[in-house]
Amino acid sequence: MEMTYTIDKNVNEKAKKNMLYWAMASMVVFFGGFCSYYLVMHGNGNWLVFNLPALFFVSTAVIVASSLTMWWAQKSIAANNYGGAKTGTLLTLLLGIVFCVVQIAAWKELFGQGIVFAGRQSNVAGAIMYVITSMHFLHIIGGLSALTVTSVKALRHKYSSENYLGLSLCAIFWHFLGALWVILFLFLYLNR
Predict the structure, then answer these.
(1) Which of 38, 63, 94, 95 is in Cβ range 3.0-4.6 Å of 178 for a Cys bridge?
(2) DSSP-assigned letter for residue 52
C-alpha cells in the first residue's frame, strides 16, 4: 500500500520562513560576536583612530534605496502588477551590485590611507573593520544570488498575488541585509 503525504501550503510557507528567521538570527549572533570583539579590543589601547571612507555613506544610501525598490516589487506582485515586480527586483539587483562596487572602492580608499588588514602596518582597528565589512559583503553576495533567481522568476511571470513566497523570502532577507549594514555602519562610525 502506497502512502502519499500532502503538506498544507501554509505549513510549507511557515516552515520556510522560520528557517530563514533562524538563519538571520544566527547572522545576528555572528556579527554580534565580531562587534563585541571590536569593543573589547577598542578598550585595550593600541587603537588606531581613522575616518571611515565617505564611500561608506554612499553605500549606505544605495542599500537603503535597494530596500525601497524591493518593497516596491513586493507591493507590485501582491497587486498582480507584473511590470512593477520585474522592475523592482531588477532595480534591487542592480543597486545590490552598485553597493558591492562602492564597498570595494571604499576598501581601496582605506588601503590607500594605510589602513591594511594584516602585516607590519596593520592595526587591530582596521583589521576588525575589514572583517566585519567583508563578512557583510559575503552575505550580500548570497543575497544577490537569491535576487538573481527571484528576478529571473519575476521576468518569467512565476509569481502572482496568489504565489509569491520566493519573492517574499528574498525580500525579507534583503531587507535584513540592508538593516544589518546600517547598524554595522553606525556601529563602526560611532566606535572609532
Answers:
(1) 63
(2) P
What residues contact residue 110 under an 8 Å CB cut-off, 6+ apart? 50, 53, 126, 129, 130
What angle do helix axes 82-112 and 165-190 make, rounded to 10 degrees?
30
Residues 6+ apart with CB under 8 A from 192: 49, 50, 51, 52, 125
pLDDT digits (tens, 9 = 90+) for 67-105: 999 999 999 999 999 999 999 999 999 999 999 999 999
Residues in the chain: 192
What's the one-letter identity of residue 63? I
Indicate whether 2 belongs to any domain: no
- Looking at residue 8, what is its pLDDT? 65
* CATH number of the domain enclosing 25: 1.20.120.80
Look at the chain and report how many structural domains it folds into: 1
Give the structural domain span for 48. Answer: 14-190
pTM score over 0.85: yes
CA 74 – CA 159 distance, rounded (Å)? 10
Q: Establish if 9 belongs to a structural domain.
A: no
